[in-house]
Every structure is written in C-alpha cells, then in structure tokens.
C-alpha cells in the first residue's frame, strides 16, 4: 500500500512547478488575497493522474484556501485552472463536482440530523433542481432514486456503515463521519477526490482503515489530493508531496525528496524531524475551513 513501493512519478524532477507526464489538474497563476494578506499565490502546479498527492505546509499556508478555489467554493482574484483539459474558472461547487472533481471538508459537513442514508442520497447526482422536473417525469425520477439508493448501499457497505444507514449521522463517531464524508463524495462517481484533513479527529483504530480506503481509491484509478498534518500518514501513502508556504509552492517531490529538502525543514518540518521521524510541531486546530 505504500506509495514508495511503486514509483508512479518516475522521471519527474522534484522541482516546484514541474510538468507531469499525465496531469489531470493544471493550475496557473491562481491568486487569492484577503485584505492585505496573500493567502494563495500558485504560479504553476500540476497533479499527476492516478496518484496520491499530499498538499502540506504550516498553519495558514493557504492549503484550504487553494482547495476552496479549485473546487468552486471561493473565487480566485486571478489565474486559471483546468481539470481533464477543461477550464473550471467561474464554475460553482456543484458543477465542478459534476465534472468529476469532488472534495471533502476539514470539519465534516455530514448533516447530523439526517440519517446516514439521507446524507448519501443528498449527495447523489441530480439532487438540486431536477426534482421539479422529476414531478413531471415521475417514473424516470423513481428509477434514478432507486439507482441512487443502490449505489449508496454499495458505498456504505464498502465503508462499513451499512448497518448504520438508518441512524442519525450525528450519532456516528468522528472517524465514522469521515468515512461517511468519503462515501458521500463517491456518490457522484468522481475521477478525482480532494480530502481536507481526512485524519483530523479520527481515533487511531480507524486511521488504518481510512488509509486503506484512500490507497484503494488510487489503486482503482482515482486521483487523490489531500491536505494533512500527520507526517506518518503523509510519508506513508503519498506518491508525491507538494509543500505550500505563505501561499506559494516552495517544494514538491517524493516523500524521500521532501524529507531531505532544507527549505521544507526550515519552513515546516523543523530541525530534528529527519532524525526523529516525528510529526512537525504545528497546531492542527480547526479554527476555519
Ligand atoms: N475567509 C477568510 N477571510 C480572511 N482570511 C482568511 C480567510 N480564509 C483564510 N484566510 C487566511 O488565509 C491564510 C491561509 O489560510 P488557510 O486556511 O488556507 O491555510 P491552511 O494552510 O489551510 O491552514 P491550516 O493548516 O491551519 O488549515 C490564513 O492567514 C488565513 O487566516
């Protein structure tokens, strides 16, 4: 399961902005400021199809903001990005999800007062607006609903949540909510999944299971981009790591490249990381998304 056992990035130089052989996502000149603060300033970034890529960096580096911009939950000040060759600027989150790029949130968005199944069905394609049409085309609508329910059951089974399908999402543990969040994201059958801190607040017993789910998605051909602070997780499953600091990509490479990169050690990992193999000293407080 370790990204290091197969080099999916063979021949790619560990240089910020480096071109990839088969990029699914290409970001150019994406900038976003809040008042006088430049939160994101990414000159060029490519994400290789079919890999697990980690986006790491200190608190406030701009990781969540970049996720929000690319997935249509915030607007860029300038810049463009393409997903599978299609420019996504200006599209909202639902449209972008329909293009095949979905994301999860740092603080899970599971609706606590709906059941697990209801949460899944809400994430299904065609949930917004199409119900009105559905009232005129009821048989098709019912067929769609049945297909959505079947897919939801399949995914809940995969994520070991099927037994909980009629329970309120609010009754799930933190880790189970993360699993539900992943299952929900998969309802639209995406090509790429972006996970914002999938391990935050997860009981260690479930971390391994989440890791296996993430690597399984990659092994089935999906592209995974994830933000995470846990260095063991990052180094263990990533094919490639992108390091953001003050909104800019300061390094990218394989885990072995990143571990040895002096700029990354200075900006994020801290001296002593290499010897101890420990997590960097960072506050992972979830004050915002
Ligand atoms: N809506 C907002 N309004 C004002 N400032 C914001 C907003 N969102 C983010 N910021 C600021 O932009 C910078 C980047 O924040 P962002 O949340 O993207 O960082 P991050 O790398 O995801 O951090 P963390 O690891 O703590 O989640 C921070 O200085 C943050 O305070």
TrEMBL record:
State the Pfam families in the record: ABC_tran, BCA_ABC_TP_C
Alphabetically ordered keywords of this record: ATP-binding, Nucleotide-binding, Transport
Record's CDD domains? ABC_Mj1267_LivG_branched (cd03219)
> Which Gene3D superfamilies is this protein grouped with?
P-loop containing nucleotide triphosphate hydrolases (3.40.50.300)
Please give the GO cellular component terms listed in this UniProt entry.
plasma membrane
The residues covered by the ABC transporter domain are 25-271
Cite the record's Basic and acidic residues compositional bias ranges: 275-289
| Organism per entry | Thermobifida fusca TM51
Molecular function (GO) terms for this protein are: ATP binding; ATP hydrolysis activity
Region ranges (Disordered): 270-289
From the Swiss-Prot or TrEMBL record, give the protein name.
Branched-chain amino acid transport system ATP-binding protein
């Amino acid at each position: 399961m370790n990204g290091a056992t197969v080099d999916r990035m063979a021949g790619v130089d560990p240089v910020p902005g480096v071109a990839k052989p088969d990029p699914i996502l290409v970001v150019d000149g994406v900038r976003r400021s809040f008042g006088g603060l430049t939160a994101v300033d990414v000159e060029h970034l490519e994400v290789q199809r079919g890999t697990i890529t980690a986006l790491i960096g200190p608190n406030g580096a701009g990781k969540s903001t970049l996720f929000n911009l690319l997935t249509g939950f915030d607007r860029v000040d300038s810049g463009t990005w393409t997903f599978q060759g299609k420019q996504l600027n200006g599209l909202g989150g639902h449209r972008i999800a329909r293009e095949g790029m979905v994301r999860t949130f740092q603080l899970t968005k599971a609706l606590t007062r709906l059941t697990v199944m209801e949460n899944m069905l809400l994430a299904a394609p065609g949930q917004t607006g199409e119900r009105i049409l559905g009232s005129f085309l009821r048989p098709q609508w019912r067929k769609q609903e049945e297909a959505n329910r079947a897919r939801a059951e399949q995914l809940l089974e995969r994520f070991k949540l099927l037994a909980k399908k009629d329970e309120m999402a609010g009754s799930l543990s933190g880790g189970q909510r993360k699993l539900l969040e992943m299952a929900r994201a998969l309802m639209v059958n995406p090509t790429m999944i972006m996970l914002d801190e999938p391990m935050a607040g997860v009981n260690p017993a479930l971390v391994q299971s989440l890791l296996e789910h993430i690597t399984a998605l990659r092994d089935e051909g999906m592209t995974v981009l994830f933000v995470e602070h846990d260095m063991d997780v990052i180094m263990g499953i990533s094919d490639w790591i992108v390091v953001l600091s003050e909104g800019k990509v300061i390094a990218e490479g394989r885990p072995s490249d990143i571990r040895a990169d002096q700029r990354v050690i200075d900006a994020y990992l801290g001296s002593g990381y290499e010897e101890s193999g420990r997590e960097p000293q960072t506050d992972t407080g979830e004050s915002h998304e």
